[in-house]
Amino acid sequence: MSRARVVVTGSYNQDFVWRTEHFPVPGETRLGRFSTGPGGKGFNQAVAAARQGAHVTFLGALGRDAIGAGAAALARAEGIDARWQWCEDLPSGNAAIVLDAAGQNLIVVGSGANLALSAAHVEAQREAIAQAAVMLTQHEVSPEATLRALELARAAGRITVHNPAPPLEGEDGRLLPLVDVLTPNETEFTHLLASCAGTRVDSEALHALSDGALHDLARRLDVPTVVVTLGSAGAFVSHADPARWHDALACYRVPAAPVQPRDTTGAGDAFSGSLAAALAELDDAPFAAAIGHATKVAGLATESPGAAAAMPTREAVRARFAG
User: Fold this and answer.
1) Among 165, 183, 259, 292, which residue's Cβ finds the most Cβ atoms within 10 Å?
2) Residue 61 CA neighbour count, 13 Å, CB half
3) pLDDT tens-digit profile of 1-58?
4) What homologous superfamily is domain 5-9+41-89+119-320 in, according to CATH?
5) Set 15, 172, 269, 283: catalytic member
């Protein structure tokens, strides 16, 4: 079995993007510039992993429309082994994204075929999952499909990585016991603490907490390793058992890469996808090495516009951060 095999179960969305100097307020119309490109949290993460050298199998659903045809062609061009569930009566997923001059974003998603991805379709890929090193999932497809993907990966003894985005109501409790590595951002982390641990914390207050306090919060979730992405403040890692990952510390921070952000749309997906790729070939290297690499990939992704299209290659990351 190749140690560099990653299966991603997730969404494809066609992104429709408007750029404007300032976000419009309710009732206001602003002029902007339009572009379109591939996205969806699952597909973004699949592209990120593939461009970091992983052999990626992608499990997703598409409508029988022009967006779906384009997505299938793009997956082939990226070298991704896509196993599509084709939906005759649903549109392919899509997203409306508004970006301001600072690179911040507002997003509305039309899920379409993504929510029709079935547990049966995932079950049919059991062999591919068993041959992988890592399973990576998120929240933009049917919860039943995500659950089955994690169950099959856990049964096969594979590493499971889950990006709990966007936040769900009531489903996380079934998923978390099947997850080895959880990668929430600040908002998703505080949502999980409230919904799964009964602990309420202001997401804006996380940056000011000590490492010990953050570690205590992360240990309230039923996941061996929690990695909280903190934007420009980097990432925080919390292990129940650091020895499993050849890490010396139970908790630590990793600084963000020094970059000039232009578009933050796919940064979290770049992080999770590249982390999955790094874990697939980690061997005896420490977990901290994989996290350090993922922060560089995520940072570099923010310097390019778009979502999937912004994912940097392994060579570009090495060239940018050499030495």
Assistant:
1) 183
2) 23
3) 444 799 999 999 998 989 999 999 999 999 999 999 999 999 999 999 999 999 999 9
4) Ribokinase (3.40.1190.20)
5) 269
